[in-house]
Design goal:
Blueprint: E1 11-16, H1 27-42, E2 46-53, E3 57-64, H2 70-92, H3 94-98, E4 117-120, H4 124-135, H5 137-140, H6 155-160
Antiparallel strand pairs: 1-3, 1-4, 2-3
Length: 173
């Protein structure tokens, strides 16, 4: 019998684009992130409680499900999105693609910084603190005045219950 009870705590996850380049400024690149999160959510690899996609980094609160570890989910998200970003840049912006060229044995291009941050959220208070931090990131960056104005965030989901991207689970159940 498959154990469906989560084995891992929710996690605050941050991944940054290499050298903080504004790769995710265009919505088409944000959509690549959304597509990957949809796949992971629909296929019950993880539960996504919150997200924000900024121009050069992402913040997520997620929880791995079934037999998937947080490392599995992270690897799946980052490798899929890197591959899709590379394909899109090859077609649409080869010169920008060249700014991601690296001299390593395992890849020609690198889009994500190597050290993504994952913090287990053991308490409700810490969960809420990270949720608020994530939701107010676009306001702090000057992208909007109110967090509900920023499309690529889960803030409106918690205000209205409407999940525009069909990827979210309410942390309250």
């Amino acid at each position: 019998m498959k154990d469906n009870y989560p084995k891992y705590h929710p996690q605050f996850f941050t991944a940054t684009i290499l050298e903080w380049k504004p790769l995710l400024q265009q919505d088409a690149y944000k959509k690549i992130i959304i597509d990957s999160l949809q796949f992971l959510s629909i296929n019950k690899r993880m539960r996504l409680f919150a997200f924000v996609i900024m121009s050069n980094h992402i913040h997520l609160i997620w929880q791995s499900l079934n037999n998937f570890t947080p490392t599995d989910i992270q690897h799946s998200l980052l490798s899929y999105t890197a591959h899709q970003i590379q394909l899109k840049l090859q077609k649409e912006s080869p010169s920008f693609l060249n700014s991601f060229k690296v001299k390593t044995k395992d890849r020609a291009y690198q889009f994500w910084e190597r050290e993504a941050l994952g913090i287990d959220l053991y308490t409700h208070d810490v969960f809420i603190q990270k949720l608020n931090y994530l939701h107010y990131n676009p306001v702090k960056a000057g992208l909007c005045i109110h967090p509900e104005e920023y499309l690529y965030s889960s803030y409106r989901f918690y205000e209205t219950g409407v999940d525009v991207f069909n990827i979210l689970s309410n942390y309250a159940g």
